[in-house]
Amino acid sequence: MIKKLFIVFLHFIIFYKIVQSRLNLKADYTQKHIIGYSKSDDLNFYNSQDIIWESIDTLVLPPNLKNLQKIIKISQSNNVNAVLNIEGNSLDEDSLKQVINQVKKLDADGVSLIFYKNPSSDKKYLKKVEKMGALLKEISKEIHFSVSISIKNIPYSYNNLIKLSNVDYVIANAYDLGIFDGPVIANSDTNEVRNLIGAWNSTDTNKIILSVPWYGYKYVCDEFLHGIYTSGCINSRKPQKIEFSEIYNYLVGAEIQDNLYITSTEIWNQTSLNPYLNIKEINGNSYDITSDDLLTYYQIQYDNPRSTYLKIKDNVIGGVGVYSLDTLYGLNQNIIKAMYSSINRDFI
Question: Span of the secretion signal (predicted)?
Answer without folding.
Answer: 1-21
